[in-house]
Every structure is written in structure tokens, then in C-alpha cells.
Specification:
This protein has two domains: about 5-65 and about 130-150, Roll (Chitinase A, domain 3); about 70-125, Thrombin, subunit H (Beta Barrel), CATH 2.40.10. Helix content is about 10%, strand content about 35%. It is built from two helices and eight strands, in the order ββαββββββα. The strands form two sheets. The chain has a four-stranded antiparallel beta sheet with strand order 2-1-8-3, covered by helices on one side.
Length: about 170
């Protein structure tokens, strides 16, 4: 079966920046809905017409991936608003930020990037914003999507969908 809109593709990949630093590796196949919300548009376009076993190398500029870095999404918040066990790298959905935080754009995930005695730095940018990426991916399987998957617009795993994470967790998917 070839990849078309509204099918499910199982992928493995290695993601690097343009300097060759490895950013993420997915050794076990994960399924994604093509034509939904699971993959970046540029990746979906590149996959069209290929089948199981094909390997692709893609170069993604920031505008094809996670956008340019926006300094307007950096916020300084009073340290006293946050719990004592706060650590750099922790993430919060906008709705879960402590009461008293300044007006931040909703529907973003904010990462604690620095902690000072008087304030905390929150970054609403995607961790890969502003970075050109090199992606080596392999198609491990292709199947028809179910009506339920098409209706939801997802198989359930988005490409680098960043979730609030516990300290020490480094998974991007």
C-alpha cells in the first residue's frame, strides 16, 4: 500500500540539527495519521506515494518545522508564585500556571528555562523553534485509517507533540 491522504503510517526516525547533533531517535515504529494533525505538513508531502521499507532524508527549515524563535514568548514571573520543588525543564500548560502570572498567550506550553531567587523565566516557544532540522525516517508500515482516527484527526501520537513533563524526562514525542 502506498501512502496517501487519510492513511496511517508507522515510522522510525533519527532527528538531527544541521550541525549533526542528535536531537531525537525513535527506534520502535510509531503510527501517525497522514492528512490529520499528527505530522508536519512538509513530512506528509514527502511521504506521499511511498510504501513500506522506503527511507527518506529530509531537511526542514524552521518555517517548515516549528517556526522561528519568538522572543515575545519569554516571560518573567515572580518566583514566589511557583512551588518550591520547581526545576528547570519543567513544563506547564498556560491554564496550569500559578494564579498571579502575567497575561500569557493561552494554548501554549511553557518551559521553565531559568530560575532566579526573585523570578522564573518561562519560554512559550517550542523547544525546536528556530532550528533547521535533518530527519532520516523509515516507513515501517502503512494501513488504511479507521473512521474514528479520521474523525479525530489523529492516531493519538503527534510528531513532537510536547507534553508537560517531569524533571529528567527528555522525550519529544
Amino acid at each position: 500500500m502506498e501512502i496517501t491522504e487519510q492513511c496511517v503510517v508507522a515510522l522510525t526516525w533519527t532527528l538531527k540539527d544541521t550541525l549533526g547533533e542528535e536531537l531525537d531517535v525513535l527506534d520502535e515504529p510509531v503510527e501517525f495519521l497522514v492528512g490529520g494533525d499528527d505530522l508536519l505538513q512538509r513530512i506528509e508531502q514527502a511521504l506521499q506515494g511511498f510504501g513500506m521499507g522506503k527511507a527518506l532524508d529530509l531537511h526542514l527549515e524552521p518555517e517548515e518545522a516549528f517556526g522561528d524563535y519568538d522572543e515575545g514568548l519569554i516571560f518573567l514571573e515572580p518566583r514566589a508564585l511557583f512551588p518550591a520543588e520547581l526545576e528547570e525543564g519543567m513544563s506547564f500548560e498556560a491554564s496550569a500556571l500559578p494564579k498571579g502570572c502575567s497575561a500569557v498567550p493561552p494554548d501554549l506550553l511553557y518551559t521553565v528555562t531559568e530560575i532566579y531567587p526573585e523570578h522564573v523565566v518561562l519560554d512559550g516557544n517550542h523547544p525546536l523553534a528556530g532550528i533547521a532540522l535533518r530527519l532520516h525516517l523509515k516507513i515501517e508500515g502503512v494501513r488504511e485509517a479507521t473512521e474514528e482516527e479520521i474523525g479525530r484527526g489523529t492516531v493519538g501520537t503527534g510528531f513532537f507533540r510536547i507534553q508537560p513533563m517531569a524533571p529528567g524526562s527528555e522525550s519529544l514525542h
